[in-house]
Amino acid sequence: MKTVDLHNHTTFSYDGMNTCEEIIENAIKNSISVIGITDHQFSINNIDEYINKINQCKEKYKNKITVKCGIEIGLRPKPDNFVSFNKKGLDYCIFECLDSDNDITMDLFEFLEWTRLFNMPKGLAHTDIFKLSDKYHVNMIKLMKQYDIFWEINTSGNYNYYYDFITSFNKQQLIKKSGLKLSIGSDTHYIRDLNISKIRSVHTLISGLGNPIIFL
Ligand SMILES: [Zn+2]
Hints:
37% of the residues lie in helices and 17% in strands. The chain has helices at residues 20-29, 47-60, 108-115, 129-136, 140-146, 160-167, 169-178, 196-209; strands at residues 4-5, 34-40, 66-74, 92-96, 122-125, 149-154, 182-185. Strands 1-2-3-4-5-6-7 form a 7-stranded parallel β-sheet. The radius of gyration is 16 Å and the shape is globular. Zinc ion (ZN) binds at residues 7, 9, 72, 187.
């Protein structure tokens, strides 16, 4: 089975323990087909250097794995330089924690409008979209389709919506019916924590639903 893991941190993130090479080599060892690097925007000092580094890795490992250059943009609060990350050379971006119960979290509608400026695949990372639907009295699945935003299933085990989704037939059917694009991310900060069997079982689940998976 072809597998993606589109959420990984390296030493470009303040909380990443491994280099790009170590993350990629670990992915190869675990037979992952597409690996995405998504360091935190606020801890990357020089974004061009970051993109160059990942491009070098794309070339170095091209016969073994597909490497994608992403970025994770925090929304607590909205970064002052939000649009500066709409940058040539990035293959995709993920926005995190839009469902946070924190007053400083970016407003949903403001967020949706800003994302229109990003001309690359964009997704919501570890965000409970069902909770957001309730909070704003909207149909988040419909909005994400309208704004062409994919939804990340985050297998790190740190977010309850992951367990809700894998155990809720109703939620799975809603996602299936919508045809919403999905991504799968381990959110690895340290290669020893990668749980490949969770990634594989989510791939099996989504393949059964038939929803498209980004970059697969
Ligand atoms: Zn992350």
